[in-house]
Automatic annotation (TrEMBL):
Protein name per UniProt: S-adenosyl-L-methionine-dependent methyltransferase
Pfam families the record matches: Methyltransf_25
MF (Gene Ontology): methyltransferase activity
Species: Thamnocephalis sphaerospora
Keywords, comma-separated and alphabetical: Methyltransferase, Transferase
């Protein structure tokens, strides 16, 4: 580790009193969905069907969650849960970044909110699934279909702030160094990097949670990714070119015991776990009957005891070359 850098780890468990009810979220989503329509031919070329769910069609990308309307709803609800948990859309000490890159843009909601908050900044969001709005965008906001695993198609030092969130299921085991090097390459000296990731395994819980964790691990092994690596990226981020790297470990409550955030997180996280069913069946990780039994146990455990999803945030400032 560079002697001029330092790593800090902080445990955080937060709850905010803002109303992020599903009814309020669904009203907003119905408006966003209207501007996400694409031609049928384009949909067939870039997507594939897997056990009644639509997924990306990029062969070398291991990301296993779908990208259909149901997942669009879940991703937007996930955004509101995370915003409520942290109380804001970003933690890096940015002030007025001229150019911002959002890696794994998803539905684009984070970026559009940030574009409204920073109207003088230019935002580019990239994803392998073009599920972002195609009209009614802020003038300082654009989206591009890019596979981050093929490198970032931008010039050196282009961005003042590089943001990445919840893409751990899409990074092959041996590609983190390459990806972080690309983050550093496109970030200007003095600019900021912010990552928010999870390994998607339930923390605490009983036999149902333990069995689901086993299935998730086996699915990731079959798809050549290891989300658990996101728990210890500090040294790799530093080696890529970032200094003053901070690591924050955050506990997201799952269930009504966690208040409004926990109630909404329960739906968001359970829906993500259920969305892994198709890929698990495809890779022979478990049968439908085994998954039904596991989810039934998990539902009961969520009623009886606290459960968490462990998140980790990294913030680092780009060093001069």
């Amino acid at each position: 580790m560079n002697s001029k850098t330092r790593s800090k780890s902080v445990d955080i468990s937060l709850e905010r009193g803002r109303d992020y009810s599903r009814a309020r979220i669904s009203t907003r989503l119905s408006g966003l969905r209207q501007v996400r329509a694409r031609s049928q031919s384009a949909v067939q070329a870039i997507h594939r069907q897997l056990f009644a769910r639509r997924h990306h069609n990029t062969e070398d990308a291991p990301y296993c969650l779908p990208n259909d309307d149901e997942e669009v709803d879940r991703l937007d609800q996930q955004h509101y849960v995370l915003r409520a948990l942290f109380g804001r859309n970003y933690l890096a000490p940015i002030q007025a970044p001229a150019y911002v890159l959002d890696i794994g843009a998803g539905t684009g909601t984070w970026q559009m909110e940030m574009a409204a908050e920073f109207p003088d900044s230019q935002f580019i969001g990239i994803d392998i699934s073009p599920i972002q709005p195609t009209s009614c965008l802020p003038s300082n906001c654009q989206f591009e279909m890019v596979n981050m695993l093929e490198g970032l198609p931008y010039q050196n030092h282009r961005f003042d702030y590089v943001h990445q969130r919840m893409v751990s299921l899409g990074v092959p085991t041996d590609r983190w160094d390459m990806l972080l090097s690309e983050h550093a390459r496109v970030c200007r000296p003095g600019g900021w990097l912010e990552l928010l990731e999870t390994d998607w395994a339930p923390c605490d819980g009983g036999p149902g949670a333990q069995q689901l964790t086993h299935y998730i691990r086996e699915l990731c092994k079959a798809r050549d990714c290891e989300p658990r690596e996101t728990a210890n990226l500090t040294s790799q981020i530093e080696e890529a070119g970032f200094g003053d790297v901070r690591r924050l470990r955050v506990q997201l409550p799952i269930g009504g015991w966690g208040g409004l955030i926990g109630t909404q997180a329960r739906h968001v996280v359970l829906s993500a776990w259920e969305a892994m069913r198709g890929p698990m069946l495809e890779h022979g990780v478990a049968t439908n009957e085994q998954l039904d039994e596991t989810f039934a146990l998990l539902e009961a455990e969520l009623v009886e005891q606290p459960m968490w999803l462990c998140l980790v945030v990294y913030i680092g400032q780009r060093r001069a070359d």
